[in-house]
Amino acid sequence: MDNKTFRIVYEGGTGEIEEKKSRFIAHICPVTTEKEAVDFISEKKKVFWDARHNCSAFVIGNNNEVTRCNDDGEPAQTAGRPMLDVLLRENIHNCAVVVTRYFGGVLLGTGGLVRAYQAAVQEGLKNCKILEPKDGYPCEIKTDYNGYGKIEYVLRENNLPILNTDFGAEVIISSVVECNFKENLEKIIADKTAGNAEITWDSQVKFDILDGQILKF
Fold first, then answer.
1. H helices of the chain, where?
2. Helix (H, G, I), strand (E, B) or coil at 196
3. Counted domains in the chain
4. What's CA 216's distance to the chain center, in Å?
């Protein structure tokens, strides 16, 4: 499946890089309002008051209705905006990030600053739990034992979860499929099993993916 993934920080995290003796420490937090984002940034500035810079960026809303960034004394467009660009590129929503810089005595230049601040945000995101809300259809796929392996392969190849497998006179596999892949799955399974499989669809639901696993319906 190839679609742009909507992503939310479910649990914040931190990440740190070092560039020419300067330390860049990213602090990432889930937020739902501009006030929450501003409060988070203010808190980090108080905690890391002794740092040379505490640059920030945040995105609010399903369509990024509110976006803000701040260079906090770094040259214009070398910190806050590059940090924001990472969030937008990764399609992260409802998130605030502060990157604290402890100056190491060596100037990095504008290009070096952009790369360092972006790398810090990326390192921080690696240590966050990222939630992916989805819309899809639960389904049951019924087949014989010869078709079971083929269907299991199709589901795993397309990163579709196997919620349950019932082995009886026939094999019934339960899964949930994103809306935009429903018709494709029907065609693929019909082709792979030569029509020897039956798919029963339930009503559309919302579900969440966390660390590659379904968190809830």
1. 34-47, 80-89, 109-126, 145-157, 182-192
2. coil
3. 2
4. 16
CA-based nearest residue to 57, from 31, 21, 22, 18: 31
What pTM was estimated for this model as a whole?
0.76
Retrieve residue 216's tokens: 């809830």
pLDDT digits (tens, 9 = 90+) for 95-135: 999 999 999 888 889 999 999 999 999 999 999 999 988 89
CATH number, domain of 192, equals: 3.30.70.240
For 4-58, write each residue's pLDDT tens digit. Answer: 578 999 999 999 999 999 999 999 999 999 999 999 999 999 999 999 999 999 9
| Pairing state between β 22-30 and 13-19 | antiparallel
CB neighbours (10 Å) of residue 216?
Answer: 9
Q: What is the amino acid identity at position 56?
A: S
Q: Distance between CA 194 and CA 157 in Å, rounded?
A: 18
Of 37, 110, 115, which is closest to residue 77 (Cα–Cα)? 110
One-letter identity of residue 149? G
**What CATH code is carried by the domain that includes residue 54?**
3.30.230.30
CA torsion sign for 91, 92, 96, 102 is negative
Give the residue numbers spanning the domain of 140.
135-206
Tokens of 110: 């504008």
